[in-house]
From TrEMBL:
Belongs to the GTP-binding elongation factor family. LepA subfamily. This is Elongation factor 4. One of its GO terms (cellular component) is plasma membrane. The keyword Cell membrane applies. The gene is lepA. Residues 4-186 form the Tr-type G domain. Its EC number is 3.6.5.n1. Required for accurate and efficient protein synthesis under certain stress conditions. May act as a fidelity factor of the translation reaction, by catalyzing a one-codon backward translocation of tRNAs on improperly translocated ribosomes. Back-translocation proceeds from a post-translocation (POST) complex to a pre-translocation (PRE) complex, thus giving elongation factor G a second chance to translocate the tRNAs correctly. Binds to ribosomes in a GTP-dependent manner. One of its GO terms (biological process) is positive regulation of translation. Its main location: membrane.
Amino acid sequence: MDIKKIRNFSIIAHIDHGKSTLADRILEITGLVGEREKKDQYLDKMDLERERGITIKAQTVRIPYKSKDGTTYILNLIDTPGHVDFSYEVSRSLAACDGALLVVDATQGVEAQTLANVYLALDHDLEILPVLNKIDLPSAEPERVIEEIEEGIGLDTSNITLVSAKTGEGVPELLEKIIKFIPSPKGDPNAPLKALIFDSWYDPYVGVVVLFRVIDGTIVKGQDILMCSTGKKYEVIRLGVFSPEAVDINQLGPGEVGFLCANIKELKDARVGDTITHPKKPTPKPFPGFKKIKPMVFCGLYPVDPGEYEDLKFALEKLQLNDSSLFFEAETSQALGFGFRCGFLGLLHMEIVQERLEREFKVNLIATAPSVVYQVVKVDGTILEVDNPSKLPPPVEIEAIKEPFVKMEIHVPNEYVGNVLKLCEEKRGIQKDIRYLTTSRVIVIYELPFAEIVYDFFDRLKSVSRGFASLDYEVIDFRPSNLVKLDILINGSPVDAMATIVHRDKAYYKGRALALRLKKVIPRQLFEVVIQAAIGNKIIARERIAPLRKNVTAKCYGGDITRKRKLLEKQKEGKKRMKQMGNVEVPQEAFLAVLKAE
Ligand code: GTP
């Protein structure tokens, strides 16, 4: 393969700006996916992604493309995830590219993640090709958005392409520009093998599948390889490319992108960022490896039926095979029994994992309210990382509690700036900067406690800006705050799974709101239920649920047996998600209520 005819690139964009649609159109226009097998959003592999409209797992496609000059090129399109939680995954796929298409929605303009993605691409020294998408829409404002790209980002737009990923307009021109402006890879075919792993996942039939880009040398089917970080050796059993289905190939040279299978049993043996080399002639310069990402949001996951504990463990192990950013360890809760403490990159990541556990592995779950990681400075000088409020040491042992802060960048139209500032202030934010991207769009920069975002920040931001604000954030440091543990007691017993850490100024308000909410979601029982919120020994709120015998079929006078059965089934369904707390049955909603209490 002539290295000069290879182009390795990604598409980067703010969420919903049309990255997947553009990828589909490229596959179609280059003839890789014909009309018949054309499925919308081919690159969004999983059903779940399709439903949510976001990409979780990066997938690479090799596209032969015959250019107008008559030469056939190989385009390696590397699909990247688009959500704020997954910026690490974007970063690792970009490492395998030489260029990136920066897609900006012509009806929207530059958003927070447009900018964040540009920074990532610049970090990797990529050639950035700006693309203005959705020009078929009457509301498209190309001039305004081009100005935003020029002035807001400082990107040269002289080679910008105007496209409609939907109709395909402009896409042929874009393909020509990819050839012209994105540099071909560099690499030495005679140097020792050096390949970068930029993605890997577990496949039940073949074990770990590794996606890599060859930097130097050649990789050949049947050869032995060495993983630099683990020192483990493997034989390459399968070598190939996705085009878009898996196609077997005998060898891949510098600049090429492909996959391999080598009987690798565990994902940790094929870490993203690791270097593949030849055991007898190793590369002298392996990659330094990628930073290890730390989960920032934690919650407890418990099987509703204790008999499903092993199933849940199996499912988490399986998911982890494909998601190295997912963390879990066994945990026991007085209230919920045996389960797992799980760590996630962010809230969306958490939601996706929960949904997959339930949908793909059919495990019924109870999830506790998410928590961030706190640093507890103890009186004896030691520092403890606490990711579970119920594990907070007693107040007498605590010198200070530090909480993670994020730097948040919010892009918002002029008219909603006031609302956004109000929201950030309410969330204990510290204003850092406000500047104009253009005359009508503003960038607001705040530092906020991460815990305040974990609750309902995204939803609130959406509603106060009518959906026009976009955000990006990163955790910057830990700062001391006046924090206390808020306990929930049901009939006198503290429910460990409902404990939260809150700012002292908000504790009373939150305790009351919480008790009220729980009252609404915990069904009446045969006896009185008392819900209390407490800080230490001090009760700050109390609610009471009067006893009642619940007879769900009471409404069905007469003999409609099917309706009766339906109601009973429904009740059974509801029961499934209950947990016995002492003698009180508490539904899943109660745990969500802890999350939503405002
Ligand atoms: P994520 O994968 O969630 O990051 O989104 P994305 O950037 O891949 O966006 P996607 O391709 O899913 O497009 C978002 C929405 O915009 C979809 O409803 C598309 O049908 C629509 N869309 C994308 N491109 C165009 C276009 O050129 N014109 C019009 N009218 N709609 C488009």
